[in-house]
Amino acid sequence: MGHIIKTPAGTYRANWRDATGKQKAKTFKTRKQAAAFLADTESTITRGTYVDPHAGRLRFGKYADKWQEARSGELATMARDASILRTHVLPRWCDVPIGSIDYTAVQGWISDLARRRSPATVAECFRLTSSILRSAVRDRLIGVNPCEGVKVPPRRKKDTDGRVISRADLVASLLPAVPDRYRALVALAGGTGLRWGECTGLRWECLNLDACTVNVVRVAVEVAGSVTVKPYPKSRAGRRAVPLPDFAAEILSAHRDAFPAGPVGEVFTNSGGGPLRRTLFRARVWRPSLVRAGLLGCVDRMGHFKWRAAWTDSEGVEWSAEFTTERDAVAHVAKLAPGGLRFHDLRHSYATELVSRGVPVNDVQAVMGHEKPSTTLNLYTHQSDGRDKRIRKAFADDPLTDEEPG
Fold first, then answer.
1. Which of 202, 219, 214 lies closest to 261, judged by CA?
2. pLDDT of residue 382
3. Residue 239 to residues 76, 217, 229, 372: CA-CA distances in angstroms?
4. In this predicted model, what pLDDT tens digit does every residue of 273-294 receive, in sequence order?
């Protein structure tokens, strides 16, 4: 039972014991204020919703450190979240007491962030901030999560989202433009829809070129430039067997004869025999291959030792430059031209083609490694080239008449 005493200074101190039995006290100017506070506090202790009035003084940054230390999860996810916290969240909230953060402050921060960052970045910042403050509620540091009800700008698809490449263009244009050492990697991704980590973590023991199947059992994970192998895929549905198309099987067979396997049987390695790193692959192999294939910018030969590089920037302005070698011209366009097909778009293209060719969604879901068919339909299928033609054909038959049979 709490009690109130008058201090020598003429104020009134409310005394109580918290849910753990620890003695607590808080001083007020009047007995009425102290009595009201004490009654409310004892009521929250009885209901099990007690929050220490002094706990909110803990600064957000200090609590965020404890929150991160207590978490467990995938290395890549943890590294991504730590980067977002360090770059966007902590600069705003690090030194702010948790109890001082209210709804209006969070909404104002989100609105300001939305003017400077993409909706996807804003959503991630909000997700992490809300998770930390939700944990603070569970730890009885604050009574409610001030992120509740905050409006976050919606993620809207852009024209560059989910680009696809047809199977014909993949085989006839892109694959010939990819360097020999990495052609089988692109063929595998385009012919099976495997993710980057599933491709780079693949070992020869999981490939059956005679039966034309690939078994996905492990993935390569890259964090801060270091590549490790995780002995299980992204989800339970990710462990799967995927049919291998003939063109990919042929290229993989040639790759096996031309390039040695990695230390433990990896199918794909860099020129030094080590693991592939995604950022380096994108800059040095993938984007230059797009340029050579005519899928990003343009490089034309002007003479014996003269090459012209041309591209259009994000504002629609056309640029060009001249070089003495094709390699320099290609590298220049690859570096400066915006957009372009992403490696992950090979996965989009694979699923889109399967659905457009009438493969049942549950079969597409299985080879894609999705746990829900809605993921397959919502994320990885787009308008196919034959859609309009099929829709018109559906209405091309003679309409039913209203005549009744005689």
1. 202
2. 56
3. 19, 5, 15, 14
4. 999 999 999 999 999 999 999 9
Tokens of 347: 């996965």
Report residues of the chain scoring pLDDT below 50.
401-402, 406
pTM here is 0.73
Q: DSSP state, 405?
A: P
H or E element at residue 319: strand 318-323
Name the DSSP class of 94: T
**Do 349 and 189 meet the contact criterion of CB atoms below 8 Å apart?**
no
Q: What is the rounded CA–CA span in Å between residue 108 and residue 217? A: 45
Q: What angle do CA 27, 33, 36 make, to 5 degrees?
A: 110
Could you give phi then psi for residue 81, rounded to 5 degrees?
Answer: -65, -40
114 token code pair: 């939305």
Greatest Cα-to-Cα distance within the chain, rounded to the nearest angstrom: 108
CA distance 335 to 288: 9
Q: How far is CA 179 from CA 267, 284, 296, in A?
A: 16, 10, 17
Q: Are 241 and 366 in contact (CB under 8 A)?
A: no
Contact 108, 146 (CB under 8 A): no
Distances 213 to 216, 249, 365 between C-alpha atoms, Å:
10, 9, 17
Residue 233 host element (H or E): none
Quote the CA–CA distance of 236 and 224 in Å, as a whole number: 26
Cβ neighbours of residue 89 closer than 8 Å, sequence gap 6 or more:
64, 125, 128, 129
Locate 303 and state its tokens. Answer: 């003479």
Structural contact between residues 130 and 122, judged by C-beta atoms closer than 8 angstroms:
no
- DSSP at 203: B
Residue 310 sits at φ, ψ, to 5 deg, of -135, 140
What is d(CA 63, CA 77) in angstroms, rounded to the nearest whole number?
20
Write the single-letter amino acid at 294. G
pLDDT of residue 406: 47
Amino acid at 264: V
| pLDDT attached to residue 40 | 82
pLDDT value at residue 1: 65
Vertex 160 angle, CA 156 and 164, to 5°: 120
DSSP annotation of 97 reads: B
